[in-house]
Design a protein that fits this description.
The protein is 75% helix and 0% strand. The N terminus and C terminus are likely disordered. By secondary structure, it is mostly helical. It has a domain of 198 residues: Orthogonal Bundle (MetI-like fold), CATH 1.10.3720.
Amino acid sequence: MHASAAKGATIAAVRPRRRWHWALALPLGWLVLVAFLAVTADWIGLPDPAAQELILRRKPPSLEYLLGTDNLGRDMLSRIIYGARTSLIVGICAPFLGFLIGGAIGMSAGYFRGKIDLLAVGFIDVLLAFPALVLALTFTAYLGQSLFNVTLALGILSIPAAARVSRANTLAWANRDFVLAARTIGASNWRILTREILPNLLPPMFAFWLVAISVIIVAEGALSFLGLGIPAPQPSWGGMIADGREALDVAPHTALIPAAVMFATVLSLNFVGDMVRNMVDPRRSAL
């Protein structure tokens, strides 16, 4: 009887783990597919995403055009895949830039504390006081519309969140026994920060970076939707949604398909980010 009870407990413990793996496989597979298509877009024989055929405008999805055509007769499938490249470049590079600067600010504030912490927290609060979308619009309007400028503007906006995550985790690790031991033997502050604290910061920062990518993709889409994002004819998901809104009554696929692709990508990033965060924080995974 005890053996059967132990066996049942083992099966119950294995089932959630298997279910967890299956739950992660679908969003991770979608992200891998999007990234693969974005990287190999030039080699898989797609039509020119900027080529216009007005006689074929607003064609519904068919065998010839799997996702239809837009208001200017451009192939929707090609534009979505090339738009994925744009969204991923901005989504990956902008938070990476923000995490480099914000992570350094947060580590310094959490480790040294005192006046440095006070100045860092004040700087973060000043950036957070500005409405993010208005600040992004101001940056892109002043610097001009380009992939680099949009990435730079959104990277600056991601600094406060990265600094907060870095500071909170640094505060949690700064007084651990191995850090105190390193101080006792005379290790420099640089060595302690890079050898003792930074390796413990990377897992939670990586988990938060995945979620930040989804936020940046939505922000880039919002800028493009408002006309201050990636300039035409370079495709982006937000720009496609903005172009398709004029024909929602006659050709809803021109706006709904890129919106659905963006939704699936952002949802997958959030789901994978939550999974990674649960992996690096056992207390959250037990809740």
